[in-house]
Every structure is written in structure tokens, then in C-alpha cells.
Design a protein that fits this description.
The protein has 107 residues and is an alpha+beta fold. It has one domain: 2-Layer Sandwich (Alpha-Beta Plaits). It has 4 helices and 4 strands. Strands 2-3-1-4 form a 4-stranded antiparallel sheet. Helix 1 runs antiparallel to helix 3. The radius of gyration is 14 Å and the shape is globular. The model has no long low-confidence stretch (mean pLDDT 91).
């Protein structure tokens, strides 16, 4: 049985990038990479009034999350999307992520 993991990735826009650029890049990233990963259950992009953003990704398991993150390292589609974010260095990005285990789901 899988134990879902939710990953929170905080970021800001890179210099010269608009929110429209972010949304366009996110749509491409979603369609060309995320949607093809069976371990990804859900992804949500949210904004705060202070100009910060959060990419919320729910994975089927921690193993799935780690597999997807490993693929992201060598994926040009991912690199294009990450270049829109202020924290586009992979070491910095991974250190700012938060992992949460699902305890209960209410729908």
C-alpha cells in the first residue's frame, strides 16, 4: 500500500519573469513532464500577495517523489520551467522543499 507524500516547494519569480510567463511555463511543464509521471497524484501552484509562490505536489509515495526528482535533474523541460524560478539551483531548491506524509484525506 502506498503512503502519499506532499512536497511543498516555495519560490519567487526570477528577474524579468511575469506571472503570465510562470503560468505558461507551468502549463508546459505539467503537460510535457508531470502528466507523464505515474507517481504524481496532484499538483497545485499557489500565490501569496507578497509575491511568493508555492508549488504543491502530491506523490503516491516517497519513493515516487524521489524518482521524479531524479528525472528532473536531466530533463530539459524541467530545466526550462525551473529557470523561471528564483531558486533554480538544484541544491538550493532541494534544501527549501518540505515533505509531509498524508495522515488523512477529506473530500
Amino acid at each position: 500500500m502506498y503512503k502519499p507524500i506532499t512536497v511543498l516547494v516555495p519560490f519567487r519569480l526570477a528577474d524579468g519573469i511575469s506571472e503570465a510567463d510562470l503560468l505558461n511555463g507551468s502549463d508546459i511543464f505539467q503537460a510535457e513532464f508531470v502528466d507523464k509521471e505515474p507517481g504524481v497524484l496532484r499538483r497545485e501552484l499557489v500565490a501569496k500577495e507578497d509575491g511568493s509562490y508555492l508549488d504543491i505536489v502530491q506523490f503516491r509515495s516517497q519513493e515516487d517523489a524521489l524518482k521524479v526528482m531524479e528525472k528532473e535533474r536531466t530533463c530539459s523541460i524541467c530545466h526550462r520551467f525551473f529557470s523561471l524560478l528564483e531558486m533554480n539551483d538544484s541544491v538550493e531548491a532541494e534544501s527549501s522543499m518540505s515533505f509531509y506524509s498524508t495522515l488523512a484525506v477529506y473530500e
